[in-house]
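Supplementary Note 3. Input sequence used for the single-chain structure prediction.
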Amino acid sequence: MGIVSISLNDESIEALDDIQKKFGLKGRSEAVRRAINAAKAEAQMIEEMEGEVEGILIIVKKDHSDPWMNMIQAKHENEIKTQLHSHLRDHKCLEVMVISSEAGKLSSMLMEIHSTGKADYVTFVKS
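The predicted structure, written as discrete structure tokens, is reproduced below.
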């Protein structure tokens, strides 16, 4: 097994310790492996989508004043059938969208959202 050193901010370390505790894992390494497996499963789901896809996209944005999500939504307006926007604490926002799209377009949209690094939470629930 290889050893990888990473730097984490205090919030990420707290989250890692919380994951370890809640799942009863023996150490931080197991928590990191679990997080990697969850991300891997999500990436695989995105990769395996084909044809027309429908579902719910849920995003928690870190900063209400940052317009990055508006630009992505405008670019993908044909795929977004319904949208709900709600303000949360600490200047965060919740975006819930009903999506009906060709798989490639949805994959592109999800990659754009993830690559910004400006979302605390992103998940797509396929119907």
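The chain has two domains: 10-45, 51-126. The helical segments are 10-22, 28-48, 68-75, 103-116.
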